[in-house]
Model the fold of this input.
Amino acid sequence: MGLSGLGIFHTIIGIAAIAGALLSFIKYGKIDLSKLPGKIYFYGTLITSLTALGISKHGGFNAGHIFSIFIIVLVSAAYFLFSKKQNSNRARYFENFSLSFSFFLSLVPTVNETFTRVPLGHPLAKDISDPIIGKTLGALFILFIAGSVYQYIKQKRANQQVSF
Done:
């Protein structure tokens, strides 16, 4: 598989972050930073994104590093909204979207790396241009859009209940 020590650490923390996000989506319909799975996602994603900046499969600064920086910005903005704008119903929409979008973006390199490495010796994809990667990311994008619409509707209902 050819992972460095940093790569192994990055992968383990990344898997924990993904598990936290999925558990939070299942239990709460969103990544909820006030609950343990949401906290695991937040801190795991920060650590994973920061460690990704020290990893380069192809040498030098690349698109994966840009994804990492953008993900750091998204989760940091969501945390700011969560912690400093607690009384703003509008902030919840941006918080939910930022966290969901960061999750989707983190799946792009995850799918690419997983499909080009697993199973060992006979990976699912030869490289990033393999159609299985594109199709998988397309399906995940559709799930992201559907989930974002669901979260918007759910948040709108929650905001209306608070208003009355």
Summary: The chain has five helices and no strands.
